[in-house]
Structures are given as structure tokens and as C-alpha cells.
Design brief:
about 400 residues, single chain, four-stranded antiparallel beta sheet, Arc Repressor Mutant, subunit A, two-stranded antiparallel sheet, mainly alpha, 3 domains, 18 helices
Length: about 400
């Protein structure tokens, strides 16, 4: 008598149309079609969101595949029949209840088919020659039948991930370039308006830049990030043109000035040449050595501050390797945030130079969350004067926020 394979699950489990469709697809697959089980598993892992399978269910699928004796899945003998105990062991000690739940996920996603025995147990019946005649367990034939579909999904996902990575790289490069070019423009007093055209000031450019950054979500798709990346790229190009035009104008002015000096000094009887020089003792220039800024005893390590406030690094022209570099970078950022000199002097008097600079970096890091940077700094200054402000919780909150953002990503 010919053995009939079960098409419905044992016990109270119900049959769905999705189960029927999965079984129908498995029937019409070519008999000679073969797939590498672990290559197929990697494709499923890549396209897991498209398929709708969870990570824990994938660990169960990995365990099921390990029970098949062949590396290549082909033919009709694709039913594996391990016990729940053995499956739990190979699924890294998963509990039986969790195992059953994730097996159901694999069935519902159409990756495996239940071939339940009359009593619901998993086993194989062999003939007199010792060959498996019929097996009851989980049928892996959907992996072969859907191989082309799943591999196509995996390729699409990989292409999308690569495109997303490229747009994120573009945003990171534009952020770094724009921040450092703005800092250079402010330090070098580069004019932003030429012949009445151009942005009003570097503050206006920075506000436009920060406004674009505020619209970048922590986790976003490529479609959301691409227009923002294009905005930053256009802004970076405009700032580059401003700086290049200024450099060209300076070079032109320098050449003209050099020519004028050359004409003036070409006279042989110039009074300047006949003027006596001062002795070295009277004309020597005294250089005053500035003591490098040292880290106060009660502040936090510079590495911890930069970990909590990494955005401040973008505004440094040569990087931040010590507290002197940090304070110099903050002096560029402070007016960009709209903090008045009086508010800054009060903060320095109450907290000290280093701690006040760390607060500025923290305000920059929080970005649009603070409506008025100057008012916020004055409030912290009053708390510091009353002995109610501590820098530690602010830094730890920023580090924790950064860690949670990485975990969600």
C-alpha cells in the first residue's frame, strides 16, 4: 500500500491557506533542482524582514538544517525528524515552549512543512533493506522550491543596504566638511556676502546647517536620507565656493601689494634704506610663553567628554588632542550657538574655563532640544553658583542616549 504524507498538522493546530500554498509550491518544484543548504540559510538571514521570520526562528531553522545528512538539498528525501530535546540542544538550549513557538513561525512563513505522523511523533519507517521508506517530521522542500525567490530578495536587500550605507557616508562627510569650513570662515573673518549677494552671516549658514541636521532621524530609510544628503551637499558646495573666492581675492590682493612694494623699493636713494637700525638689545621681540591649559582636578577625562559630545570635534580644524584644543574649539562654537559674552563670562566665573567649555559642548550635542542656548547656560550658571549643578549626570545622560541610539539602529 502506498503511504500517504500528511498535509494537516496534528492535534489542535489549524490548517491555513498559506500552509496549503506552501505545500502546493513544494509539489511543483523541479525534481532535479538542488540548493546548498548553508548558502540558502544565509540568503534567508539576509532577507528575513521580507520573509517575516524572526532571529530566534532562524536559530531553529539552523538546527533543523543541521539534521539533514547532505549539504545539498535535492530530491524527495528532505524530511528531518529530530526530537524536541535534540532540537533544543542544537538551538543553543532553547526551552521547549519557545521552540514550539518558533517552529510555528517557520511553518507560517512557508520555510518548512509539517509532516506529522498519526500520533504526532517524529520518526522514520525503514524498509527491509534499511532505507527510509517514509519519514514524519519537518519537510525542507520549500527551501528548494523558493530558492530563486528568496535569493532575489536577499540581493535586493543587499543592494538597498549598500545604497543606505553610501548615503550615510555622504551625510557624514558633508557634516564634517561643513562644520570645519564654518569654523574656518568664522576664524578667518571670511565675508559671506559679495556684491550684495549671499547669506547674511556665518551664523545664518550655521543655522541652516543645524536645521538640516535636526531633520535627520536616528533611524531612517534611504528614501528619507537621500534628500537631506543632497541638501547638505549643496550647502557644502556653496561654502566651498565662498572660501575659494576669498582665497582667490586674497591672492590677487597680495600680488598687487607685492608689485607696489617692489616699485617703491626700487629707488636707490630710499630714505628707508638710509635710516639707522636699532641695536639688537633695543629691537628684540620678547615672546611670552602661555602656560598650556591644564585639566582641573575635579573635571572628567577628555576622552569621556568627547565620547559624550562628539559633535564638537567637527568644528576643530586640526582635531582635539588636549584641553587647549578643546577650549579653542568651544570659542568658535559659542558665538554660533548665540551665547552672549556676558553669559559666557558668568559661566566661566561660576564653573571654571574647562567645565564651562564642556557645558557648551553638551549644549551643541543636544542641538534642537534646547531652544535658547544662552538662557539654558545662564540657568546652569545660577545652579552652579548655588552648588546645585554637577557635570557628571549631564555627560552620562548623553552617553546613555548615544548607546540607546546605536542599539535601536
Amino acid at each position: 500500500m502506498e503511504t500517504r504524507l500528511s498535509t494537516t498538522p496534528f492535534g489542535r493546530r489549524s490548517l491555513t491557506l498559506a500552509h496549503v500554498a506552501s505545500q502546493a509550491n513544494a509539489k511543483v518544484r523541479p525534481a532535479d533542482k538542488a540548493v546548498h543548504r548553508w548558502k540558502m540559510f544565509r540568503a534567508i538571514c539576509t532577507a528575513k524582514n521580507r520573509i517575516g521570520v524572526t532571529e530566534r526562528a532562524l536559530s531553529v531553522l539552523n538546527a533543523l538544517l543541521s539534521f539533514h545528512p547532505e549539504t545539498v538539498l535535492t530530491g524527495d528525501e528532505l524530511v528531518v525528524f529530530p526530537s524536541n530535546q535534540q532540537l533544543c540542544l542544537r538551538a543553543h538550549g532553547m526551552s521547549p515552549a519557545t521552540l514550539r513557538r518558533h517552529l510555528a513561525v517557520l511553518v507560517d512563513c512557508g520555510l518548512v512543512i509539517r509532516r506529522d505522523s498519526p500520533n504526532g511523533k517524529r520518526y522514520a519507517r525503514k524498509d527491509r533493506a534499511g532505507e527510509i521508506e517514509v519519514a514524519f517530521g519537518f519537510d525542507l522542500s520549500p527551501l528548494v522550491a523558493r530558492a530563486d525567490e528568496i535569493e532575489a530578495w536577499a540581493e535586493e536587500v543587499e543592494l538597498e543596504e549598500r545604497a543606505l550605507k553610501l548615503v550615510r557616508e555622504k551625510i557624514s562627510i558633508c557634516r564634517r566638511d561643513i562644520a570645519k569650513m564654518i569654523a574656518t570662515g568664522i576664524e578667518e573673518s571670511v565675508p559671506t556676502r559679495v556684491s550684495g549677494q549671499g547669506p547674511a552671516s556665518w551664523m545664518a549658514i550655521n543655522e541652516s546647517y543645524r536645521g538640516t541636521l535636526s531633520r535627520i532621524p536616528r533611524t531612517a530609510t534611504r528614501l528619507v536620507l537621500e534628500p537631506l544628503a543632497d541638501e547638505l551637499a549643496v550647502l557644502a558646495d556653496e561654502i566651498t565656493i565662498l572660501l575659494e573666492n576669498h582665497v582667490k581675492a586674497q591672492n590677487l590682493s597680495g600680488n598687487e601689494s607685492h608689485s607696489e612694494r617692489h616699485i617703491q623699493n626700487s629707488k636707490p636713494d630710499s630714505p628707508t634704506d638710509l635710516e639707522p637700525r636699532f641695536p639688537e638689545s633695543r629691537g628684540a621681540i620678547v615672546e611670552i610663553e602661555i602656560e598650556p591649559s591644564r585639566m582641573p582636578q575635579r573635571t572628567y577625562p577628555l576622552g569621556m567628554v568627547l565620547e559624550a559630545c562628539p559633535d564638537i570635534i567637527d568644528y576643530s580644524r586640526t582635531g582635539i588632542g588636549n584641553w587647549r584644543d578643546f577650549v579653542a574649539t568651544v570659542s568658535v562654537v559659542r558665538p554660533m550657538l548665540g551665547i552672549s559674552p556676558s553669559a559666557w563670562f558668568e559661566a566661566q566665573a561660576a564653573m571654571g574655563d574647562i567645565e564651562a567649555s564642556v557645558v557648551i559642548a553638551a549644549i551643541l550635542q543636544r542641538g534642537e532640544a534646547i531652544n535658547s542656548a544662552g538662557g539654558y547656560l545662564r540657568g546652569l550658571t545660577r545652579r552652579a553658583e548655588a552648588g546645585e549643578f554637577s557635570l557628571g549626570p549631564m555627560l552620562m545622560a548623553l552617553i546613555s542616549q548615544k548607546t540607546r541610539g546605536k542599539q535601536r539602529a
